[in-house]
């Protein structure tokens, strides 16, 4: 009796591990101008939690795919890189890329497809999930190694939801909150490359042009230091005159509250929060930001939060590690001067 139970348990566990071995993950590797978007490295780490084979897929114009290929082949832990090169896939237009992924995945025995929860991931993956009639599992901060339980924040990060994906979903379509996973290491990988048939899309959606905000500062989403300003800055000129020098002194990216963006003081791409970017830098300086929950949703995981606000009761002080009750128009330039002279 005991022996039969033991045999059954061992058969079940070997079945489970065989199923795990069969599972394999694919990471959608984002790139621009022949350079890998760093956020994809966080998605690779999330995929590797499953302990199964992990491959990557690069989709884009021929020149973009060729440009990024050497870099992605070296990502540690990726065994294979699939490529699909065609002008139809340039600029990651969801209308063209999602049908391509939908046609490639079933033949490759993929159990999980991951992407970073970036503008591209948020655009392509829900469309793909729709085509595959699968659930969209968005913005996860953790996953269990079984591969069917995922954790994601909801209500601007005020509650944490655990989702068990439906067994009917043959392929789990998952986007990853990049700040929740370390970046996969690069340099040690030696993935093989397999070209997949890149069918021409019949989409009526065409790329026309884009306007880019060029900045010499670090990218806001991945910067290790961020200096953000709020409505209290009162104008775009003040943003540039008061915040930029502090950001320059710290080698930081500049961010903004939605109120500052809505008032036209800062570009939309700089918004931090529930409807903006989610950041978790080593240092986050909030100047003249009240600390509304929607703003906190985008920065409260920062390692060290410094708040400058003239209202001692401002909610931002509840999450701040260092609080300065002061007028930012005096405090920020003084702080900048001190940092510059300490560096000299
Ligand atoms: P305010 O709330 O007006 O705060 C200004 C602060 O500056 C005050 O605390 C004041 O004491 C201080 N201050 C004034 N003068 C000075 C001075 N001279 N020196 C120092 N301090 C001074 N907000 C976001 O930021 N990101 C989001 O992604 C976002 N998404 C949203 C989504 C939804 C659905 C909704 C409803 C709202 C969202 N908001 C978001 C808006 C959010 O609720 C707040 O309105 C916004 O964050 C306030 O911005 P603020 O702190 O700059 O402005």
UniProtKB/TrEMBL annotation:
<feature type="binding site">
    <location>
        <begin position="288"/>
        <end position="295"/>
    </location>
    <ligand>
        <name>FAD</name>
    </ligand>
</feature>
<dbReference type="InterPro" id="IPR014729">
    <property type="entry name" value="Rossmann-like_a/b/a_fold"/>
</dbReference>
<dbReference type="InterPro" id="IPR018206">
    <property type="entry name" value="ETF_asu_C_CS"/>
</dbReference>
<dbReference type="InterPro" id="IPR029035">
    <property type="entry name" value="DHS-like_NAD/FAD-binding_dom"/>
</dbReference>
<keyword id="KW-0813">Transport</keyword>
<comment type="function">
    <text>The electron transfer flavoprotein serves as a specific electron acceptor for several dehydrogenases, including five acyl-CoA dehydrogenases, glutaryl-CoA and sarcosine dehydrogenase. It transfers the electrons to the main mitochondrial respiratory chain via ETF-ubiquinone oxidoreductase (ETF dehydrogenase).</text>
</comment>
<dbReference type="InterPro" id="IPR014731">
    <property type="entry name" value="ETF_asu_C"/>
</dbReference>
<dbReference type="InterPro" id="IPR033947">
    <property type="entry name" value="ETF_alpha_N"/>
</dbReference>
<comment type="similarity">
    <text>Belongs to the ETF alpha-subunit/FixB family.</text>
</comment>
<dbReference type="GO" id="GO:0005759">
    <property type="term" value="C:mitochondrial matrix"/>
</dbReference>
<feature type="domain" description="Electron transfer flavoprotein alpha/beta-subunit N-terminal">
    <location>
        <begin position="25"/>
        <end position="211"/>
    </location>
</feature>
<keyword id="KW-0274">FAD</keyword>
<dbReference type="InterPro" id="IPR001308">
    <property type="entry name" value="ETF_a/FixB"/>
</dbReference>
<dbReference type="Pfam" id="PF01012">
    <property type="entry name" value="ETF"/>
</dbReference>
<dbReference type="GO" id="GO:0050660">
    <property type="term" value="F:flavin adenine dinucleotide binding"/>
</dbReference>
<dbReference type="GO" id="GO:0009055">
    <property type="term" value="F:electron transfer activity"/>
</dbReference>
<dbReference type="InterPro" id="IPR014730">
    <property type="entry name" value="ETF_a/b_N"/>
</dbReference>
<keyword id="KW-0496">Mitochondrion</keyword>
<dbReference type="Pfam" id="PF00766">
    <property type="entry name" value="ETF_alpha"/>
</dbReference>
<keyword id="KW-0285">Flavoprotein</keyword>
<dbReference type="GO" id="GO:0033539">
    <property type="term" value="P:fatty acid beta-oxidation using acyl-CoA dehydrogenase"/>
</dbReference>
<feature type="binding site">
    <location>
        <position position="231"/>
    </location>
    <ligand>
        <name>FAD</name>
    </ligand>
</feature>
<protein>
    <recommendedName>
        <fullName>Probable electron transfer flavoprotein subunit alpha</fullName>
    </recommendedName>
</protein>
<keyword id="KW-0249">Electron transport</keyword>
<keyword id="KW-0809">Transit peptide</keyword>
<feature type="binding site">
    <location>
        <begin position="271"/>
        <end position="275"/>
    </location>
    <ligand>
        <name>FAD</name>
    </ligand>
</feature>
<feature type="binding site">
    <location>
        <begin position="257"/>
        <end position="258"/>
    </location>
    <ligand>
        <name>FAD</name>
    </ligand>
</feature>
<feature type="binding site">
    <location>
        <position position="309"/>
    </location>
    <ligand>
        <name>FAD</name>
    </ligand>
</feature>
<comment type="subunit">
    <text>Heterodimer of an alpha and a beta subunit.</text>
</comment>
């Amino acid at each position: 009796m005991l022996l039969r139970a033991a045999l059954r348990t061992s058969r079940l566990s070997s079945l489970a591990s065989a199923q795990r071995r069969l599972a394999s993950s694919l990471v959608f590797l984002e790139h621009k101008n022949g350079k890998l978007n760093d956020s994809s490295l966080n998605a690779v780490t999330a995929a590797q939690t499953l302990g199964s084979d992990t491959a990557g897929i690069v989709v884009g114009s021929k020149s973009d795919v060729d440009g990024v290929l050497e870099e992605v082949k070296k990502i540690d832990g990726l065994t294979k890189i699939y490529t699909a090169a065609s002008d139809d896939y340039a600029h990651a237009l969801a209308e063209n890329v999602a049908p391509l992924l939908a046609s490639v995945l079933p033949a490759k025995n993929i159990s999980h497809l991951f992407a970073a929860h970036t503008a591209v991931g948020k655009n392509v993956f829900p469309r793909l999930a729709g085509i595959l009639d699968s659930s969209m599992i968005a913005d996860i901060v953790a996953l269990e190694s079984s591969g069917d339980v995922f954790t994601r924040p909801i209500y601007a990060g005020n509650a944490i939801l655990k989702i068990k994906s439906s067994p009917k979903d043959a392929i789990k379509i998952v986007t990853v909150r990049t700040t929740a996973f370390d970046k996969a290491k690069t340099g040690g990988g030696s993935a093989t490359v397999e070209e997949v048939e890149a069918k021409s899309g019949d989409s009526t959606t065409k790329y026309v042009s884009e306007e880019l905000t060029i900045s010499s500062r670090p990218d806001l989403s991945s910067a290790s230091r961020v200096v953000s300003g709020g409505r209290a800055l009162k104008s775009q000129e003040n943003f540039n005159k008061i915040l930029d020098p502090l950001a320059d002194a710290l080698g930081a990216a500049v961010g903004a509250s939605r109120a500052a963006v809505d008032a036209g003081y800062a570009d939309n791409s700089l918004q931090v929060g529930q409807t903006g970017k989610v950041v978790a830098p080593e240092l986050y300086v909030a100047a003249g930001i009240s600390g509304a929950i929607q703003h906190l949703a985008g920065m409260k995981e920062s390692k060290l939060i410094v708040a400058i606000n003239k209202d001692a009761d401002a909610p931002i002080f509840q999450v701040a590690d260092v609080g300065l009750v002061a007028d930012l128009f005096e405090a920020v330039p003084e702080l900048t001067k001190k940092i510059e002279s300490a560096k000299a």
